[in-house]
Amino acid sequence: MAASRRFLPALLLAAALAVSSGCGKKGALIPPEALVPAPIATLATAQKGAEFQVSWTGPGKQEKGGKLEDLAGFLLYRRNVLPPAQDCEECPNAYKQLALVDLDLPEGARQVGSLWIYDDFDLKKGQTYQYKVRSYTKSGAQSKDSNKVRRTAVTPPLPPVLEAAGSPNEVTLNFVGLPPEQGTATGYNIYRSKKGEPMPLAPLNKAPLAGNTYQDKDVILGITYSYAVTSVATVDGQAVESASSNVTEAGLVLPD
Looking at the whole model, is its pTM more than 0.85? Predict the structure, then answer.
């Protein structure tokens, strides 16, 4: 009996080694944190009209560098930023879930190329909001928090009024807008798409235009284009766009 007791620890150790090594050769164990998505670092927000457009690109890798193949969606969070003496970002209830974006049924968000966009209309003028986003996999693993962005809701400029006319060589746009109620007028942004297609996220011009006329020479005969214009103002150092103007269609026309 005493001899069997002496051999029991050795038998247990051998059994444990057999279970850990298995019958065949296996690689190193993968820690669970290596399988979660890498944190998103591209979160951004901009005000256009009465809404914030919150945007990000999804991760393509796991936190430890491996390829991410089971991305299932995103969790978007928002908090109201309070005055410094009252603000507490780390408090348990500071952030509220604003949206759950399921890749299979992405209601409430839209995808443009690799970019995901959530339009936040629930804003109060003068309130500063802070956002963060996490991604999650089909197995439920969540990434760490993304970079955090904050923005204060302001009164946007009113949308301008647009007219467009085609000629043999170009399409000429004429537009006019009112001075902004808040901030300083910066100029106008021009948006163009082919008829029937959605407007792009980025304007044709690299910087807001100071004038009220734009000649679009980069057009092709036989294609009808849709145009829209926004007014741009600078408020507290940040660019704010108006909602879109009326959409006008035009294209090149052959001379009589």
Answer: no
